[in-house]
């Protein structure tokens, strides 16, 4: 399995690898007033039937054609064609409200994941540009070359230098998995490096790098590698997201357990399985395997790997919906937010997952957490109808 080479990140001399209407009653007369007939209460009006809910008219053939074409461009990751198609604002304004809501989501996601600098770097020319990741904006200095990122001090602050082979960003040669391209692999590497710059920038604000111990350095390395996986999955195209999901599920295969490039993928693999089993209604295009059970003589890791293999292949083959992709991205962002404390990561390499579960980035230390995740999945798969 071919993956892009590890990224080197330089921290001021410390080298680290770089993841019914009411009725008024009449008024009673005063006991001291002269007797007057009580004012009769106004007659109650007949109850009005509740209005029947209106059903939005079905989209016209023209509306459906435009909407489906925009969704297809998004799901296929054809960002440049999508940018052009979204300029047809007059036709988009005629779409139904539901369709326009989806198009607004697509526009927002495109702006997040395919900013102007992306295409500019394909030329290979040096470029300084602002990048926004996880809601934080910072400057990067790009030049075309091998995948690498470094940090250097300057009188005006830290300078983040980043490089990748710009001419290979659209490479369609086979990548690390069937049906995935070399460009998909590079896309993940780019977002991982940008996330490394983000997390290192955060680190400098809370900790003097010179005071970091070797053990903290090791934990921080694991942390940024994990967060880099999240960045690649969240900011990549849906196709790239499928690619990363496959690798994260594949991280549980026995032959990948000792591969350091797969260890930071395990938390997202676990989060993905927990999400799909816990909320199958969000993912109707997928068939959740029902045969999760203990394997005689096997480990929890073997059990998860064998059970999840059909999902691995579904991410290679299934064409799922925009709503499902939105749910996947929301899950990834929630995972990134729950594990965004850089300072805590220096002393704790346990990733917080949904359902009060967790995953350690230290494989031997993950055994009790893996056991809890496996028991949770067994119980919830058994309860699925």
Overview of the structural elements:
The protein is α+β, with helices and mostly antiparallel strands. The protein has one domain (8-15, 116-383). Helices cover 46% and strands 11% of the residues. It has helices at residues 61-75, 79-85, 89-92, 97-113, 116-121, 182-206, 214-235, 238-250, 266-278, 300-317, 322-338, 342-345, 367-383, and strands spanning 8-11, 14-17, 127-133, 136-144, 148-152, 159-164, 350-352, 358-360. The strands form three sheets. The chain has a four-stranded mixed beta sheet with strand order 3-4-6-5. A hairpin with a 6-residue loop joins strand 5 (148-152) and strand 6. Helix 7 (214-235) packs across helix 8 and helix 7 (214-235) runs antiparallel to helix 11.
Q: Please compute the radius of gyration using only Cα atoms.
A: 27 Å
Tally of helical runs: 13
Q: How much beta, percentage-wise?
A: 5-15%
Q: State the helicity in percent bands.
A: 40-55%
The largest sheet is:
4 strands, mixed
Structural class by SSE content: alpha+beta
The total number of structural domains is 1
- Termini Cα gap: 37 Å
- Shape by Cα distribution: globular
The total beta strand count reads 8
Mean pLDDT: 86
Low-confidence stretches: 1-46
Secondary-structure map:
Blueprint (H helix, E strand, L loop, with lengths): L7 E4 L2 E4 L43 H15 L3 H7 L3 H4 L4 H17 L2 H6 L5 E7 L2 E9 L3 E5 L6 E6 L17 H25 L7 H22 L2 H13 L15 H13 L21 H18 L4 H17 L3 H4 L4 E3 L5 E3 L6 H17 L2
Parallel strand pairs: 4-6
Antiparallel strand pairs: 1-2, 3-4, 5-6, 7-8
């Amino acid at each position: 399995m071919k993956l892009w080479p590890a990224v080197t990140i330089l921290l001021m001399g410390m080298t680290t690898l770089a993841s019914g209407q009411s009725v008024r009653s009449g008024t009673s007369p005063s006991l001291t007033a002269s007797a007057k007939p009580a004012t009769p209460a106004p007659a109650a009006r007949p109850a009005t039937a509740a209005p029947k809910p209106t059903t939005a008219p079905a989209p016209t053939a023209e509306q459906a054609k435009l909407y489906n074409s925009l969704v297809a461009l998004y799901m296929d990751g054809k960002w440049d064609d999508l940018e052009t198609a979204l300029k047809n604002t007059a036709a988009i304004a005629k779409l139904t409200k539901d369709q326009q809501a989806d198009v607004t989501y697509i526009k927002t996601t495109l702006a997040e994941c395919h900013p102007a600098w992306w295409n500019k770097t394909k030329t290979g020319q040096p470029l300084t540009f602002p990048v926004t990741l996880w809601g934080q904006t910072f400057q990067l200095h790009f030049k075309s070359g091998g995948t690498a990122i470094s940090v250097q001090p300057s009188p005006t602050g830290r300078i983040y230098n980043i490089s990748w082979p710009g001419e290979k960003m659209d490479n369609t040669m086979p990548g690390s998995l069937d049906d995935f391209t070399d460009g998909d692999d590079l896309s993940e590497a780019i977002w991982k490096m940008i996330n490394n710059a983000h997390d290192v920038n955060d680190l400098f604000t809370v900790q003097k790098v010179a005071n970091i111990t070797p053990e903290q350095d090791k934990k921080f390395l694991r942390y940024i590698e994990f967060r880099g996986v999240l960045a690649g999955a969240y900011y990549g195209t849906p196709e790239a997201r499928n690619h990363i999901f496959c690798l994260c599920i594949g991280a549980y295969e026995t032959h990948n357990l000792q591969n350091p490039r797969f260890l930071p993928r395990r938390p997202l693999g676990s989060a993905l399985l927990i999400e799909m089993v816990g909320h199958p209604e969000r993912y109707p295009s997928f068939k959740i395997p029902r045969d999760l059970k203990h394997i005689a003589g096997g480990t929890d890791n073997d059990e998860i790997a064998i059970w999840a293999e059909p999902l691995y292949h579904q991410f290679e083959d299934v064409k799922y919906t925009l709503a499902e992709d939105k749910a996947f991205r929301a899950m990834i962002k929630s995972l990134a937010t729950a594990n965004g404390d850089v300072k805590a990561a220096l002393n704790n390499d346990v990733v917080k997952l949904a359902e009060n579960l967790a995953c350690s980035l230290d494989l031997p230390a993950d055994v009790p957490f893996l056991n809890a995740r496996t028991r949770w999945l067994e119980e919830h798969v058994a309860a699925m109808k």
